[in-house]
User: What shape does this take?
Amino acid sequence: QVQLVESGGGLAQPGGSLRLSCTYSGSTFNYFATGWFRQAPGKEREGVASISTSDDTTDYSDSVKGRFTISRDNALNTVYLQMNSLKPEDTAVYYCAVRWKVNSNYPFYITDYGSWGQGTQVTVSS
Assistant: This one.
């Protein structure tokens, strides 16, 4: 079973940038996609970006579209989330996970995902 480890979180100023990494052990080629989710205190976990395994098709939530970019480096077994123009409302714990089933056309149907990492904290504040 694949295991995922997130890194790259930290403190950023509004308008700043961070790059998160999701490094996996084992093969993800049996999975449909890798996704980034986030969870702020007192809020539900929400999907922000995903990238398909087969053809690198990407999806983004409306709240991050145009600011975040998801990409993958198969040689390094890593999926990245480049976050630009950060806002205080981006503050959350960010998780990556693999999509191992497709029960919905919605790319961030949370029950389609598994093998969650431990998360990395992102704080956007001046």
